[in-house]
């Protein structure tokens, strides 16, 4: 798809066709959304679709998860006119942090951290990431927010797979994603 072309009719998720499949092998994610971010209307529509379920909700801050969640999270924060908090992989923040171990989508053990001075008790945070595959990364972010007294106002991602972890998150938190129901099985069975 041309990065300048905008379809005459733009249904929810039209921009998913901008994503590129993995051509590098099993050590990489199966789909790369970064090309979607290069398309101005695609990015705007993606962010609008992610935020639509939260219209009228109390959101104090948006937090994006390292690294691709920074793109959507910052765009969502700008749209909502809220601040943005980066939840980082361990070792990148030079300030006081709280850490949380987790297993990512590939089963690798990692540690995520967040600065301790950004979340005050009761602060309502919208968590944003590019993808929720197994749910391990998002659950770690949820744990960090809640350990610091914050409230998870919602979870948003381009895709939330119907994995065990994805279902756990969707059962407990208000969620938003961009994959229309008729395409969900395709994304779940990659």
Automatic annotation (TrEMBL):
InterPro entries: Adenine_PRTase, PRTase-like, PRTase_dom
Protein name: adenine phosphoribosyltransferase
Annotated source species: Polioptila caerulea
Domain of life: Eukaryota
Protein family per UniProt: Belongs to the purine/pyrimidine phosphoribosyltransferase family.
Keyword annotations from UniProtKB, A to Z: Cytoplasm, Glycosyltransferase, Purine salvage, Transferase
Oligomer status and interactors: Homodimer.
EC numbers, comma separated: 2.4.2.7
């Amino acid at each position: 798809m041309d990065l300048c072309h905008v379809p005459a009719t733009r249904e929810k998720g039209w921009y998913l066709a901008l994503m590129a499949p993995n051509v590098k092998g099993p050590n990489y994610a199966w789909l790369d959304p970064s090309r979607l971010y290069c398309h101005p209307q695609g990015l705007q529509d993606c962010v609008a679709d992610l935020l639509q379920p939260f219209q009228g909700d109390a959101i104090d801050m948006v937090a994006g998860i390292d690294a691709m969640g920074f793109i959507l999270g910052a765009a969502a924060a700008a749209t909502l006119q809220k601040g943005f908090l980066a939840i980082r992989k361990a070792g990148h923040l030079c300030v006081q942090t709280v850490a949380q171990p987790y297993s990512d989508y590939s089963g690798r053990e990692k540690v995520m951290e967040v600065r301790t001075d950004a979340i005050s008790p009761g602060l309502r945070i919208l968590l944003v990431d590019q993808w929720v595959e197994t749910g391990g990364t998002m659950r770690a972010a949820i744990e960090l927010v809640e350990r610091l007294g914050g409230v998870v106002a919602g979870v948003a991602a381009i895709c939330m797979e119907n994995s065990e972890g994805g279902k756990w998150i969707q059962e407990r938190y208000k969620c938003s994603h961009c994959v229309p129901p008729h395409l969900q099985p395709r994304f779940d069975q990659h």
